[in-house]
Amino acid sequence: MFWHFPESVEVVCPDVALACISSEFDGILLDYSRQCATLDTLKAKFSRDTEAAEFAKGRQLRFLANVDPIDVARNITGLNPETTLVVVVSKTFTTAETMLNARTLREWISAALGPQAVAKHMVAVSTNLTLVEKFGIDPNNAFAFWDWVGGRYSVLLEYCLFLCNMVFAVVEKFLKGASSIDQHFHSAPFEKNLPVLLGLLSVWNVSFLGYPARAILPYSQALEKFAPHIQQVSMESNGKGVSIDGVPLPYEAGEIDFGEPGTNGQHSFYQLIHQGRVIPCDFIGVVKSQQPVYLKGELVSNHDELMSNFFAQPDALAYGKTPEQLLKENVPEHLITHKTFSGNRPSLSILLPSLNAYNVGQSLATQVRKQLHASRKKGEAVEGFNFSTTTVLKRYLEASGDVPKEDCTILPKM
């Protein structure tokens, strides 16, 4: 579904609250956690995008999902009810946590502006327009969608409402990116079909090799919410122990998804994935940084330092390190067993050209379709890596080139 909003429309609600609650303009978005996880993921991805950030300037978006009153208080702190729009996102308009949060914000608006203000400061995204009207929201201010669309798959529908604080030009690129993956999924042969291959890898790792978990490891801080989003998409979609016919499965199904942006995760749980349980890993890297920084006197840019870790980790998982190698490195004998890691641990690497709206749409659609199918010098040879890592590294070097110092931004002053 494509929307168009005239760019000349005056923004009178700089605050938007989304009630999952999910939120922001000055706005609060209310919904239960699945949509909030999705939209918070998109917000984090677009937060450093130059075009999106420019369109969203002067507006803030907040997401409220937890029924814990602390979360409610945290989300409304600093907001002016008079300039806040609350978007209640509920497919049935009956989800207990969402509706309690919605009633709480309705009271917040009523106490400040009077009951008559509710109809002008709250809108809904729902399939149940009868309950929307009964709640006190004008049905003309409700965005309907089909009742057969699961919440975790609905970000490309009316949930794109929150993206309108970046105007339709950005939304359209996001939707076109997702559409390109849809077309690829429907037309590409299985052996070249990215969502199909990713889905089959998950089935192979979980149901055949017996690996219960997957680590999602984006080497981009803007993707910090990506792993929680995929947790919800994957573990809610494939989290049952019975078939579609209700028959108990004779094998384990569904994977435990978790993750953290690199390099944070390296200091958190990477020792376990190198030396403990075997956990297949998905590494996600970006060629061009949204915030390039090159410090005078440093051999590489900050982004290249980050990406050197992106390329090194899959290789370390594949090759490991033997006791013989450690002895040659003069590691004390009593530490040999502690520093040995076996290698032969599965991972895959995904390299995005940049983290713009189009590529974000592609990355989200790829994961949805997957679930549905269940020192650097230009011109130097790339050596010392396995074939897969070498191929990805060559692509990175070809696409990025040496970043001119004048093209690198300085971090904004605090």
TrEMBL record:
InterPro entries recorded for this chain?
G6P_Isomerase, SIS_dom_sf, SIS_PGI_1, SIS_PGI_2
GO CC annotation, single: cytosol
Q: Does the keyword Nucleotidyltransferase apply?
A: no
Pathway named in the protein's UniProt entry: Carbohydrate degradation; glycolysis; D-glyceraldehyde 3-phosphate and glycerone phosphate from D-glucose: step 2/4
What Enzyme Commission number does this protein have?
A: 5.3.1.9
Q: Which UniProt keywords apply?
A: Gluconeogenesis, Glycolysis, Isomerase
Query: Can you name one GO molecular function term for this protein?
Result: carbohydrate derivative binding
Q: Which reaction does it catalyse?
A: alpha-D-glucose 6-phosphate = beta-D-fructose 6-phosphate
One Pfam entry for this protein is PGI
**Any Gene Ontology biological process:** gluconeogenesis
Is Metal-binding found in the keyword set? no
UniProt record similarity statement: Belongs to the GPI family.
Q: What is this protein called?
A: Glucose-6-phosphate isomerase
What is the scientific name of the source organism? Sesamum radiatum
